[in-house]
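Form 7-S
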Amino acid sequence: MILVSYDISDDKLRTKFFKYISKFGHRLQYSVFEIDNSEKILSNIQAEITHKFELKFSQSDSVMIFRLSKTCEIIRMGYAKNDESDIIVV
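Output:
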């Protein structure tokens, strides 16, 4: 599983980023997305962020990508328990 978390101050840029990243996965929290494991998808996301979004970032904006390994344990509580499904982790 890949997690993408972002903090972008400009409303217009944040909305564009949200629309872009939501094509690849689903929203876990307001600015956190779960993306299916795929080297191709990950490299496309990284390239797009680098060549399109990062150029417009302010000093305080950030995007973090977390690649979770097979040994990572995911504990879901509350509503997230309903969201459990088979997850393939690379």
